[in-house]
Amino acid sequence: MPEIGIIGGSGLYDIFNDVVEKKVSTPYGDPSGSIEIGKISGVEVAFLPRHGKKHTIPPHKVNSKANIWALESVGVKRIITISAVGSLKEELPPGHIIMPDQFIDYTSGRALTYYDGPEVYHISAADPFCPDINGTVYREARSKNIESHNGGTYICVEGPRFSTRAESRMFRQFADIIGMTLVPEINLAMERAMCYSTIATITDYDVWAEKPVDAMEVIKTAKENEEKVKTILSGVIPKLKDRQHCSCQKRLDGAKL
């Protein structure tokens, strides 16, 4: 039963050993793909490709309710996600990695909760990311001389288009990075009392920097960042087996009306 789950791109497949594919059905439809259960540095981990094995699912169509439920069903209690993001700050250049600790939801029309009634829960989202995982990932990245930052605000937009210049200038007043996949993954993980952390790899400056975002440029930088992510995961996974240092598992306490 793998307690650690990774949601990311198909470029991470070659980091796993002894892989077994598990097809999971959920009450919320099909997840993005089969769950791949394998080992990283000797630790059993579950992997789910967010956009499908061949990247055929756009960000606004990802079935996050099915994905989170599927991971929990195979035993996952702690989730690390890998996300490509744009930078809204000069001091966060492409190639750097950041572990956000806050987010702003600017999406629309996504299924945000498991609790649509008759059960009603109001989950505290004051500190949405797992501080224990964030800190452990940050220390691992720094020990490998990977330029990284612990803390920052991720604004999640609907996509699939990129921002207008006016939107980008507005967003950078409130956030540090911008992406399309965080919400509702993080909402749903919180509702299942799972730890959730994002390794956000910066691929570009958003259009506030007076240069239009080019999809090919983003893909190129994202590929380069994959190797950094693999290095971090190889070192950090064995250090994440103990949940005693975080309170994520208590998120449902007192939340039910």
Class derived from helix and strand content: alpha/beta
Approximate shape: globular
Low-confidence stretches: none
Fraction of residues in helix: 10-25%
Rg over C-alpha atoms, rounded to the nearest angstrom: 17 Å
Counting structural domains, the number is: 1
Could you give me the name of the CATH homologous superfamily? Nucleoside phosphorylase domain
- Name the average pLDDT: 93
Element pattern in H and E: EEEEHEEEHEEHEHEH
Task: Report the strand count.
Answer: 11
Query: Helix count, per DSSP?
Result: 5
Q: How far is the N terminus from the C terminus?
A: 32 Å
| Highest-level CATH class | Alpha Beta
Query: Per CATH, which architecture?
Result: 3-Layer(aba) Sandwich
Under CATH, the topology is which?
Rossmann fold
The profile of the biggest β sheet is: 11 strands, mixed
Strand content range: 15-25%
Structural summary, described in words:
The chain has a single domain, classed as Rossmann fold (3-Layer(aba) Sandwich), CATH 3.40.50.1580. Helix 3 links the parallel strand 9 (153-157) and strand 10 (177-179). With 257 residues, the chain is of the alpha/beta class. The protein starts with a strand and ends in a 21-residue tail after the last helix. The protein is globular. The chain has helices spanning 64-73, 131-143, 165-171, 182-191, 215-236, and strands at residues 4-8, 17-22, 35-40, 43-49, 78-87, 97-99, 102-106, 148-150, 153-157, 177-179, 195-205.
List the helices and strands and how they pair.
Blueprint lengths: L3 E5 L8 E6 L12 E6 L2 E7 L14 H10 L4 E10 L9 E3 L2 E5 L24 H13 L4 E3 L2 E5 L7 H7 L5 E3 L2 H10 L3 E11 L9 H22 L21
Parallel strand pairs: 1-4, 1-5, 5-11, 6-8, 7-9, 9-10
Antiparallel strand pairs: 2-3, 3-4, 5-10, 6-11
Helix pairs in contact: 1-4, 2-5
